[in-house]
Amino acid sequence: QVQLVESGGGSVQPGGSLRLSCAASGITFSSYAMGWYRQAPGKERELVATISSGGSTYYADSVQGRFTISRDKAKNTMYLQINSLKPEDTAVYYCNARMSLQFDYWGQGTQVTVSS
């Protein structure tokens, strides 16, 4: 059974930082491209960042320079370091593991709230 479990969300003030984690089980973690998505209230889910099985990264323009995606293959865990948080970063953040259209999995999400 595939499980992706996010953690690390919370409420922070603007300018603060958080580190999100996504622990994966039931998949060959090293074979999957991993990604973080987010969905703000009333908006569609959007891509935040991805990291390939080989370690190549991609960031949405809105988070470039503030967010850092990484993965630890020994721990089957992906991370998202979020710095310089803005109110517009408020959303539920979802972990995604994808190897193909058939093998595409999602976590349940973790809430990030940025407010003064």
What does this entry look like structurally?
- The protein is built from no helices and eleven strands.
- It has 116 residues and is mainly β.
- The strands form two sheets. Strands 2, 4, 5, 6, 9, 10 and 11 form a seven-stranded mixed beta sheet that branches. The chain has a four-stranded antiparallel beta sheet with strand order 1-3-8-7, with no helix packed on it.
- The protein is globular and about 40 Å long.
- The model has no long low-confidence stretch (mean pLDDT 97).
Keywords for this entry:
seven-stranded mixed β-sheet, mainly beta, single chain, four-stranded antiparallel β-sheet, 116 residues
Question: What is the secondary structure topology, with strand pairs?
Answer:
Blueprint: E1 3-7, E2 10-12, E3 18-25, E4 33-39, E5 46-51, E6 57-59, E7 67-72, E8 77-82, E9 91-98, E10 104-106, E11 110-114
Parallel strand pairs: 2-11
Antiparallel strand pairs: 1-3, 3-8, 4-5, 4-9, 5-6, 7-8, 9-10, 9-11
Q: Would you summarize the structure shown here?
A:
With 116 residues, this protein is an all-beta fold. It has no helices and eleven strands.
* Biggest sheet details: 7 strands, mixed
N-to-C SSE series? EEEEEEEEEEE
Q: What integer value in Å does the Rg equal?
A: 13 Å
Number of DSSP strand runs: 11
Helix content class:
under 10%
What structural class do the secondary elements suggest? mainly beta
| Ends apart, CA distance between termini | 40 Å
Strand content: over 45%
What count of helical segments does DSSP give?
A: 0
Q: Which term fits the overall shape?
A: globular
